Amino acid sequence: MLRDTVRLYLFAIRDSFITLLPLTFFRVLADLLRYLPVPGYHAAMADLFGPRWQAAVALAVEACLAAWGVGTAIAVAVFVHRRLSRRTADREPMQSIAVGFSALVNFMLYIFISGDSLADGFSYGAMPACILIGLGTGIILHAMSRWQISWSHYLTFDTDVVFFQAVRSCLPVTSAALATLVTLALAKEMSAWLPDPVLFFESILSSGIWSSTILASLINQITWFFGAHGTLVLSSVEGLLFAPLGEAYSSARGYRPLFDTFILLGGSGCTLGLLFSIMLSVREGGQVRVARLALIPSLFNINEVVLFGLPVVLNPLYLLPFIGVPLLATLISVGAIEAGMISFADTRVPWTTPPLISGWMVTGSWHGAALQCVLIGLSTFLYLPFVRMAERQRAARQSELVQKAASAIMEEKKRSPVIHRQDDTGVIARGLLGELKQAIARGDLELHYQPKLDGQETVVGFEALLRWTHRQHGPLSPILAVTLAEDGDMINELGAWVIDEACACKARLNALGYEELTMAFNISPMQLTDPDLPKRVSRALERNGLSPCEIELEVTESQAIPDNQQVDDAFRGLMEIGVRLAMDDFGMGYSSLLYLRRFEVGAIKIDGSLTRDVLVNEANADIIRSIAALGQKRGVAIVAEFVETIPQRDALIALGCSQFQGYLFSRPIPEADCVNFLRKA
Ligand code: C2E
Ligand code: MG
Ligand code: MG
User: Could you tell me if 625 and 655 are in contact, meaning their C-beta atoms sit under 8 angstroms apart?
Assistant: First the structure.
């Protein structure tokens, strides 16, 4: 339980960093503009924008850092509150806007009470405090709003929802503010009792370059790992760790150029190797997209995009290499320098200078660049197994989310369009819709064919069923594809592909001498609102040299068929062409009999929910008998779906069904297997 709770907090913090990524990205861009190590660039910018351009960009960076702190407090509070409410399945969690507002109030209290200047409060240095404020706010609000539920009968909803929500939030927000006040007052009192960190560092650092570099790299990596700006934290103890800038290298003190050039290398702890490792071993997905995005800033040693975007921050999977790689880089580079293989030139190199160039400049020889090459190569190699593990986890998690969303999308079928939803399912649905479009364009979709047989086990035709094998998530249900296509206004495009492909397959079967078989395919009720449907069908028939009686259109009954003139016109158009219509999934909806009046039906396919347990369920048997009697009277073929056993088939024959389809005979199979099936039958 405790472990789960800690995980919940860590994930909430990580989600916040990810949410704030646009801000980070903007800041990184501004930093890059400010420090781009290109000769002539700074003079050109001054010419273009005047001498104060750098100050303006610096202000933009400051603004981002300030917003980052308060943004983190707000985002952490919202995410913690949301995750806690989900865990306890709260019926009525507090609104995110109230949670965020409460975090903002607490953040302001922190600034006023800590006695810092406004500039100090609104800065990166306030990050750890902001995380704590966010956590505390989220936790208190969750507890308070749960407690409130028990006395909520005092606070009944009275027409104005906004007013109701605001009143509901008063008590939790005030409690969170009071708790912040008390905690801050106590913390201030206690801080006087804590030992001075400077004394602690000084005792360790007396042993020279090795301990300083190792300690610097640990401080840098560990602070970054927890989402705080390692480099800034490091600069606050810079005087203790490193010799003053401009002083020559000596093994008695830490040396900043060594640390920047060989340990940070591409951001923080040689993370350039992580990016290369991802690019080498992962082909698609989130990791590689972030890696590509992060490459340019990383080449200038700016690493936030990879740390927060991937994310490395708070990701236990990357902890080991993230700490281990820079330690190894320390051993190798300090070792090489101490062994006299590399020495430093007396040049100052801006920290944004790209690796290899910086190595060459700082040592004044190719040795520095070669050492950087080795370190990046080693980092790439060491990150590889972790990247693969992360990729496996990501793929599994994503597939699980997609499968979950797929079920939700299929269940939602009859309600609102899923692709307009704002939640995770909506995001996944929109992603899948884009991938479905690509799949159509790339020819990744297929049709499989399930045989239909008569009472004498002679094959009378096939039903074409859509198959979508997603490159990453494997086979996805055709119901999902059709629902997405319907919601995304591309059902006609998908339907047209199915019609063409099924007719082409039928033409190929004809060429092999199977003219007497019919080819059925499914059309969604929505396709019936397309005025071009009859034309599409007759064009497909013409193109493939088929006559209308060779194909059959199955219209599902489980979904309402729109009741309008367009649909009636489509039915009339199809009947004029002379194609046969089948009522699919008969018995699943509630308008079955009405539909029989609305258009001429050539076949009724009885749904699996009725046929499946015909042997044990008498009511179902009676319903099937009546449908069959009705069908026989009107000269309509009665097809039983989901026939899986011989006794079931025999019972269905006795009840009056004339055709059968189901796993007893065959599952839907690829076109290549149909001919084998026909030869064996
Ligand atoms: P449907 O048209 O009623 O197709 C029958 C479904 O039942 C198929 O599932 C088939 O694989 C499955 N099935 C057949 N025999 C058995 C059996 O004996 N036992 C069991 N458990 N299942 C059996 P599938 O292929 O997943 O298709 C599901 C639905 O998706 C179809 O139901 C149809 O409504 C829709 N669909 C499939 N392809 C298309 C298409 O190209 N266009 C449209 N609009 N809808 C399609
Ligand atoms: Mg069907
Ligand atoms: Mg069916």
Answer: yes
Best residue for ligand 1 mutational test, from 449, 452, 465 (most atoms within 8 Å of Cβ): 465
Nearest-CA residue for atom 36 of ligand 1: 478
Say if residue 127 is in the same domain as residue 207.
Answer: no
Does residue 578 share a domain with residue 532?
A: yes
Predicted confidence (pLDDT) per residue in 323-347, tens digit: 999 999 999 999 999 999 999 988 8
pLDDT digits (tens, 9 = 90+) for 530-563: 999 999 999 999 999 999 999 999 998 777 788 8
Q: CB of 585 closer than 6 A to ligand 1?
A: yes
Is 313 within 8 Å of 322 (Cβ atoms)? Answer: no
- In this structure, are 185 and 222 located in the same domain? no
**Ligand number, closest to the Cα atom of 527:** 1
Average pLDDT value for residue range 267-278? 91
Are 395 and 514 members of one domain?
no
pTM: 0.72
Residue 286 class from Cβ within 10 Å (0-12 exposed, 13-18 middle, 19+ buried)? middle
630 burial level (CB within 10 Å; 0-12, 13-18, 19+): middle
Q: Give CA separation, 552 vs 2, 16, 176, 462, 514, in Å.
A: 61, 54, 66, 10, 16
Q: Residue 504 sits in a domain of what CATH number?
A: 3.20.20.450
Q: What whole-number distance in Å separates Cα of residue 111 and Cα of residue 117?
A: 8
Taking the C-alpha atoms of residue 303 and residue 384, their distance in angstroms, rounded to an integer, is: 19
CB of 311 closer than 6 angstroms to any ligand 1 atom: no
- Find the 566 Cα to ligand 2 centroid distance in Å: 23
Pocket flag, ligand 1, residue 534 (CB < 6 Å): no
* Mutate which of 440, 487, 522 for ligand 1 pocket (most atoms within 8 A of beta carbon): 522
Residue 415 has what pLDDT?
64
Q: Give the model confidence (pLDDT) of 213-245 as tens digits.
A: 999 999 999 988 987 778 777 877 788 888 888
3-state DSSP assignment of residue 413: coil
Structural domain span for residue 290 = 202-411
